[in-house]
Specification:
By secondary structure, this protein is of the alpha/beta class. Helix content is 42%, strand content 15%. The strands form three sheets. Strands 1-5-7-8 form a four-stranded mixed beta sheet, with helices on both faces. A hairpin with a 2-residue loop joins β2 and β3. The longest helix is centred in the middle third of the chain and has 27 residues.
Amino acid sequence: MLKRTLLIENKYQITTQNLQLVIKSDAIEKTIPIEDIGYLIIDHPEIYISIPALNLLTENNTAVIICGKNHLPNGMMMNLNSHHIQQEIFKNQINATTPLKKNLWQQTIKQKILNQGILLQRLTQKENHFDFLASKVASGDTSNMEGVAAQQYWKHFPVIEDTGLKRERYGDYPNNFLNYGYAILRAAVARALMGSGLLCTLGIHHRNKYNSFALADDIMEPFRPLVDEKVHEITQKYPETELNSTIKSELLQLLTRTVYFKNEKSPLMIALQKTASSLQQCFMGERKKIKYPQLWNSMDIE
């Protein structure tokens, strides 16, 4: 079932009644079935949300995302008991061997570089050598082909007046759009991983001791070009440079964007569940490859 994404940017009171989320202000009152909600994004300092509402949302595996003063996602509440054999999955994930994790990271970076190359060719109409770079990714990406590819990717990525983009976490426009898109993608990946019983704290590559979502940061890598593509589209469509409601709504559409598996197509939020499930099976010893989708229909790729 395709879940809804709610972005709340005004002062509301959020409670629950009869398994419905009740969103209320002095002027309006709306009710939405909690089972229909996949993501709730709260972006106003005076929103009130009740504990029963938070509990029901969490039980439904809804990602509740809180934004900070800069309007970027700052925190997330997720279900810690979302799979019937979670303890067994945790055990296998914790005991995963170094060769397995290096192999999974190799698969992930190969797919990321291939996706970057495809997008860059689509945007510039010029051939590139990212498939060659992807073929050189070693186990664990010990030669850092990810960094080599990233340097070339952003150098030639067309955003403003056909010039390359200087990608910076706290940089100027359109980095603010990219950061918001990546934060939403990260939350969506984390929700899918937890829904498959995986512990997001334990990454296959990212290991920062302060990072509670290291595994989400790992698995989101091949999907980042979807955000990049959407930001490119937005910069061509809107003159705004500030992260306003229109831009955020556009970026949230990524969650329902169609991606492609071998014999089917799927909205991104559903595809992420399939990818997360395949990763869980890798940890359980049931398969060897992560199931990453094609981000574009192969018929559309020249």
